């Protein structure tokens, strides 16, 4: 029974921290900037795909795997229009740079949110930060292409390995047989990179791994449940009409951003020794402590645990 009570208190304390960090507001802000930069990002992304000579039909198959069923038709429509307007030629270098610069606004939104989650004040120059965001946008585009190559071109890669490197044929067969796990590993690596390089601080890989893994599982699980809900239980088409696809895409991306920031919060909680001491103190008492009595609670804690040091006043840091 005590374990259940402790778990409940941990969840409640975590929920309070999420609320205090305004995760919902930052999720909406990041989702807005990402959606605004969606079209220029696709211009850049499809340009890179053409450099890799990827068939548009194969790329569409990847979209079916990565997006919920209610959203993928809208995304494929964007792909068809960009490919049709491209007339089989690559966009110019100037257009690619412009698309990259505009798409970096989405990364900037994530930067602000993760800095707030980790309690970091942004000290980088705004122009330099924009350049860094553009660089990470390009890097994430390349990672996405590699992910599509593994998830969609699995059989082709397997046959290529058999022909070129036959000694690795058994390993390649195992990897192809566990594509779902491979997709989970790719998403985990993606979130791990986000948590390590985007916030304005240095960190260790092992500190960011738990949140990255949970965020990857959350992405895959939520996309499946969201797709199931839309297909079987929702009446959005009656409410929004022709705007249904856009509204569903915005809602899906908002919750994906929420999952991203929740992963960052998990990393913060697990890596904060002070917070661990504070939660241990809370869980050792059955009486609930209100926020108004926090200072009095800290004084009691200092009397009972004089060697642990001061519990930092979180409100004083803000």
Automatic annotation (TrEMBL):
Q: Which Pfam families match?
A: Virul_fac_BrkB (PF03631)
Gene Ontology CC terms, in alphabetical order: plasma membrane
Membrane spanning stretches? 23-52, 90-115, 127-153, 173-197, 209-230, 242-262
Q: What is its main location?
A: membrane
Task: Give a yes or no for keyword Membrane in this entry.
Answer: yes
How is this protein positioned relative to the membrane? Multi-pass membrane protein
Keyword flag Cell inner membrane: no
Q: Which InterPro entries match?
A: Virul_fac_BrkB
The UniProt keywords, alphabetically, are: Cell membrane, Membrane, Transmembrane, Transmembrane helix
Localization per record: Cell membrane
Q: Which PANTHER family match?
A: INNER MEMBRANE PROTEIN YHJD (PTHR30213), UPF0761 MEMBRANE PROTEIN YIHY (PTHR30213:SF0)
Q: What is this protein called?
A: Transporter
């Amino acid at each position: 029974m005590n374990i259940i009570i402790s778990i409940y208190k941990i969840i409640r304390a975590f929920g309070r921290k999420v609320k205090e960090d305004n995760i919902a507001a930052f999720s909406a802000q990041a989702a807005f900037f990402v959606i605004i930069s969606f079209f220029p990002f696709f211009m850049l992304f499809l340009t890179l795909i053409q450099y890799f000579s990827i068939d548009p039909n194969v790329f569409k198959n990847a979209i079916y795997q990565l997006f919920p069923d209610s959203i993928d038709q809208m995304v494929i429509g964007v792909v068809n229009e960009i490919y049709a307007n491209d007339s089989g030629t690559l966009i110019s270098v100037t257009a690619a740079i412009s698309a990259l610069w505009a798409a970096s606004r989405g990364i900037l939104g994530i930067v602000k949110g993760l800095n707030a989650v980790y309690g970091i004040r942004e000290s980088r120059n705004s122009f330099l930060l924009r350049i860094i965001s553009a660089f990470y946008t390009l890097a994430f585009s390349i990672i996405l292409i590699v992910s599509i190559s593994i998830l969609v071109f699995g059989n082709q890669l397997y046959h290529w390995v058999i022909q070129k490197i036959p000694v690795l044929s058994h390993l390649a067969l195992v990897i192809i047989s566990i594509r779902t796990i491979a997709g989970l590993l790719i998403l985990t690596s993606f979130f791990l990179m986000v948590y390590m390089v985007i916030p304005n601080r240095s960190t260790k890989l092992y500190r960011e791994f738990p949140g990255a893994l949970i965020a990857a599982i959350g992405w895959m699980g939520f996309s499946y449940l969201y797709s199931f809900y839309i297909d079987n239980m929702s009446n959005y088409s009656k409410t929004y009409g022709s705007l249904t696809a856009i509204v569903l895409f915005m809602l899906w991306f908002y919750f994906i951003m929420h999952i991203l920031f929740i992963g960052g919060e998990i990393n913060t909680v697990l890596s904060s020794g002070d917070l661990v001491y504070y939660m241990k103190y809370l869980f050792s008492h059955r009486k609930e402590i209100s926020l108004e009595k926090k200072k009095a609670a800290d004084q009691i804690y200092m009397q009972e645990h004089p060697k642990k040091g001061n519990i930092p006043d979180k409100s004083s840091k803000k």
